Amino acid sequence: MNVLILGGDGYLGWPMAMYFSARGHDVTVVDNYFRRNAGVELDMGMLYPVPTLQRRAAIWRERTGRDIKVVIGDLRDPEFMRGLLTGATAYTQAADPSFSGAPECVCHFAEQPSAPYSLLSYKHANFTLTNNLLITNNLMFAVKDFSPETHIVHIGTMGEYGTPNIDIEEGWIEIEHKGRKDTFLFPRQASSIYHTSKIMDTDLMWFGIRTWGLRMTDLMQGPVYGIETEESEADPRLRTFFNYDEVFGTVVNRFITQAIAGYPLTVYGKGGQTRGYLNIRDTMQCVYFSAMNPAGAGELRVYNQIMETFTVNELAEKTARVGKSLGYDVEVKSVENPRKEAEEHYYNPTYQGLIELGVTPHYLTDDVMESMFRIVEQHKNDIRKDIIFKGLKW
Ligand code: USQ
């Protein structure tokens, strides 16, 4: 299959590119290095340096003999996006000799992914909205105009649903009202501008799907943890970004780093916030199985991409237990919640669809956590305590 990965430099995009490539698919990755540049802008770097996308593709070629084609550019530019589907180089319209035809699948990871980043200021909110929505809109029109059969796999987020006081279905809900019934997208109520941009993505794509018969799978993903995937085991330089700062680090990755650095685990508020979590290895499987089993024409297929649920307190307790067993003196501390979110709430999402498609979950066992400790502790001396918690408020 010919696969185009938008956002191929990111935490999930790069391992996804290797995953497809390792299985014999023809992969092109596109990125504008936003995540790297944002780290520089905020002075919130990664745990270890990660080679450029071009360099990583060269290392991958050395290790496996397989090619991943790298294109650097800004997908907010519609001509650039359209060129990826037609093979025309933006502006000159000259044909790109390495173009291998319109992709059968586009994986859309090219979004500003951080809730705290989206609320740093009105400028960061504007960036999040314009970046995420323009890229989604450019993709939708490029697919409609040049390759309407192409299947789009979009990374959505469980945070679109919020924390409603009813069970969360996989994307859709049947509603009976005054004696009549219809099926609608499950109600959405996000708690950040970033999460709201994802709701808007869904609405935009749902319009395109209804109107032009496009096909999309929306993967409502929970917070991801992990570093290593099967493919990066070949060479540590192929490892994905690992952030533990307050803006780009997700909670499990942060807690493990904090435990190693001797920084008390920052439980926000009461710590009863419950989310659905998954290992980065399962993100690989979920996207892959979705790509290999495309949605039908005119179908918006939605899966809840989580493997198990935890409260923040449970994650802190687990990290402390595993950390102590490895000789770390781990302290857990409740800090004033910088976010506006429910700290005690009902949470019961359905997440069967991806399992039925063939995904085999990796759970957050003590062994899995220990293997993450082992990698992070190799970089113990590089951990910067000053970027762990600044209390960036909503
Ligand atoms: N939390 C703490 N202490 C910390 C960090 C986080 O208590 O030091 C809490 C947060 O308040 C939140 C939960 O842990 O209740 C998860 O926070 P997170 O930072 O790991 O995840 P979040 O901001 O929700 O965003 C992440 C990804 C985003 C993805 C989302 C899935 O950055 O791209 O869409 O997870 S979901 O949360 O299901 O919407």
TrEMBL record:
Family: Belongs to the NAD(P)-dependent epimerase/dehydratase family.
Protein name, entry field: NAD-dependent dehydratase
Alphabetized InterPro entries for the sequence: Epimerase_deHydtase, NAD(P)-bd_dom_sf
Domain NAD-dependent epimerase/dehydratase: 3-304
Pfam families tied to this protein: Epimerase (PF01370)
Alphabetized SUPFAM superfamilies for the sequence: NAD(P)-binding Rossmann-fold domains
Species of the source: Oceanidesulfovibrio indonesiensis
UniProt superkingdom: Bacteria
